């Protein structure tokens, strides 16, 4: 499959389970998250996908998800580039706080704005716009050229770094991106044209 890009958010992490803001905190997968990663690998194998190159963040939950997927595909040891440009957004002062406790302290609306808006920063942290400012240049410089060269590329990263990529790929507005949630451990398969535009998209959660 030429010009194929697959995005996968890491499986459930220990802090996802505890409903904590995680950001750059380096926490591992839960047992459920490990199984999500195995299932992602099985779904990709069922479609006959093989990868030429992989990218991931500097955080273990994304790296471990990638490793498990590659094991399922019989591609352990595939060339992989790790870069903090693909890290989750930095939640700053919210990191480690329970999301329900944060809502009780600052209100549902304010916490929703911090989590889902495009350009509002949580205290001491990054907005999605800030995350995109480091993720998109890396995508354009390092990932996209590999895809346009006809290589099949896998990116295992995080909810917000992937939201930034999807926003660019699908030319979504800041208003549209607010509503986008990327499920843990569910591959999204894009086929791109010679300019990097999206020819087709298959969300394996929606595809069953």
CATH architecture: 3-Layer(aba) Sandwich
Strand order of the largest sheet: 3-2-4-1-5-6
Order of helices and strands: EHHEHEHHHEHHEE
Q: Could you describe the largest sheet, including whether it forms a barrel?
A: 6 strands, mixed
Helix content: 40-55%
Weakly predicted, low-confidence segments = none
Characterization of the model:
- It is a single chain.
- This protein has 208 residues and is of the alpha/beta class.
- It has one domain: 3-Layer(aba) Sandwich (Rossmann fold).
- Helix content is 41%, strand content 14%.
- The protein is built from eight helices and six strands.
- Strands 3-2-4-1-5-6 form a six-stranded mixed sheet.
- Helix 3 links the parallel strand 2 and strand 3.
- Helix 4 crosses helix 5.
- The longest helix is centred in the middle third of the chain and has 21 residues.
- The two termini are 20 Å apart.
Write a brief caption for the model.
It is built from eight helices and six strands.
What's the helix and strand layout?
Blueprint: E1 4-9, H1 14-17, H2 31-46, E2 53-56, H3 60-72, E3 80-82, H4 99-106, H5 108-116, H6 128-148, E4 152-157, H7 159-169, H8 174-177, E5 188-192, E6 198-203
């Amino acid at each position: 499959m030429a010009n194929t890009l697959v995005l996968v958010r890491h499986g459930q992490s220990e802090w996802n389970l505890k409903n904590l803001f995680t950001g750059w905190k380096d926490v591992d997968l839960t047992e459920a998250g490990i199984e999500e990663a195995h299932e992602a690998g099985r779904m990709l194998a069922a479609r006959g996908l093989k990868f030429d190159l992989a990218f991931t963040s500097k955080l273990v939950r994304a790296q471990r998800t990638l490793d498990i997927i590659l094991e399922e595909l019989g591609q352990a040891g595939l060339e992989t580039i790790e870069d903090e440009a693909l890290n989750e957004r930095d939640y700053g002062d919210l990191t480690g706080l329970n999301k329900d406790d944060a809502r009780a302290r600052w209100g549902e609306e304010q916490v929703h704005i911090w989590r889902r808006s495009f350009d509002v920063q949580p205290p001491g942290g990054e907005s999605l716009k800030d995350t995109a400012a480091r993720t998109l240049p890396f995508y354009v410089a390092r990932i996209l050229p590999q895809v346009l060269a006809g290589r099949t590329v896998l990116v295992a990263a995080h909810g917000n770094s992937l939201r930034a990529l999807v926003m660019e790929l699908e030319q979504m507005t800041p208003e549209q991106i607010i509503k986008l949630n990327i499920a843990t451990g569910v591959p999204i398969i894009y086929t791109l044209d010679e300019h990097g535009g999206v020819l087709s998209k298959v969300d394996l959660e929606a595809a069953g």
